[in-house]
Amino acid sequence: MESNPFREEDIGARRVAEPCTLVIFGATGDLTHRKLIPALYNLAVDGDLPAGMKVIGFARREKSDEVFRDGLKEINKQVSRQGHNDALWDQFAQNISYHQSTFDDPEGYKSLKKRLDEIEADGGSPNRLFYVASAPEFFDNILLQLKESGLNQAENGWARAVVEKPFGTDLATATHLNEVVNETFHETDTYRIDHYLGKETAQNIMVLRFANAIFELLWNNRFIDHVQVTCSEPLGMEGGRGGYYDKSGALRDMVQNHLLQLVSLIAMEPPADLSADGIRDEKVKVLKSLRKYETVEAVAENVVRAQYTSGTVGGEDVVGYRREDRVDPGSMTESYVALRLMIDNWRWAGVPFYVRMGKRLPKKSTEISVHFKEAPEVLFNAVDADGSLGNVLVMRIQPNEGISLGIRSKQPGPAAQLQAVKMDFQYQTAFGKGSPEAYERLLLDAIAGDATLFARKDEVEEAWKFVDYIEDAWHKAAHPPRMAEYQAGSWGPVESDDLLDRDGRKWRRM
Ligand code: BG6
Questions:
Q1: Most buried of the four, 84, 337, 348, 392, by CB within 10 Å?
Q2: DSSP 129-158
Q3: pLDDT (tens digit, 9 = 90+) per residue, 268-294?
């Protein structure tokens, strides 16, 4: 049954989720250590984790339960949002164990099944949540083995699968993975992770739009000039990330999923209801309406790709992208991408959505800004030549989550001098506490059976359709658009500024 994400109990009280056994494939990896376990620990600290919940880490390396738990504890101490308390940890960790097997060994799955059956026979939960967080080349195999061993069905409870990103590397691989997933689990039992959807401010986009009348009336091409989405990261290829990243690039790593999801939330029509499919039906229509850049010329005109050269970030000298560990010295993979998107539907015709993402930029920040059209150039605005003072609604996804609205105001004094001021709402100040980590919300939703904040099959495929044209122009065309450069620690290549300049616009200063 699909649930409504904004029910009263969500706003007032705590979400009720049934206990289950969570099996994490790829349990020795970074994601499990840095995100999943700390998220579960924080849910436990808040009392949100269902009592009787068990976690089994499934991975290739030989390890005892103790060694596995100790490794998790060390990282939890460093990253846990609410700090680390030994007594609470011990209580939490007694329900974590380790299961050693390669991902393609049927025996490993048979013994896992035996273990899960024993948990159930001992009065534990019959519900099973399989979290596929291994390296992507094993996704297929894990799902097929779950099917072969009958683990995809729970006789006395439910069986669900959470699938991590990257969900394919293009439309063909994503479609194939979708087929494998759907042969193994019903679509309604499949949870494709896009952790940006779990971010508090991303969830607030719909509330802002559909719980307040004042914005929605202006939310169209009559009043909005353009929209910008920026995601900047100072990080480069630390921790051996270059191996994965060099095969992916900014467009596939962040735009195909996270940033197109944000665009969908900004651009979607009001859903018929707040069910998972009600919302996803509307988001997918936005993706279908994205203008596809089918020729190399269209890609060159609307998309900029770039790599960083050496520079300074956060006071530290860093090497250029091609000199990073595990990156091909002749690499043609972009660490930065800027796009001019057009959504060809009635609401958005003629309104560009400028989207940019880059590694080794000056700071960590993700924000969406909605730039409203100018007031007529008469009265006060007759003397305001500076368009930068205009009305801009900014949604800060991270950090300092919040929303602000830029308006023009009179400076104190006898002259009618205008100045830009901000009406500002900050989560931390308004609610007195920081937002939970995205993975906390998403894990709890998967346990509770709410797929609203997960990508549906058709959303993933539509996003790939758009991205594939660009990747093809870059990597298969006889005369591909050029790769630009930017210095590490700068705000990106000049070509990206030119993309907006040509339309008489500028990137917002972050
Ligand atoms: C991941 C990407 O999905 O998102 C990373 O693979 C990126 O390259 C990360 O750094 C950013 O997530 P967040 O939550 O830190 O903005």
A1: 337
A2: EEEE-S-GGGHHHHHHHHHHTTTT--SSS-
A3: 999 999 999 999 999 999 999 999 999
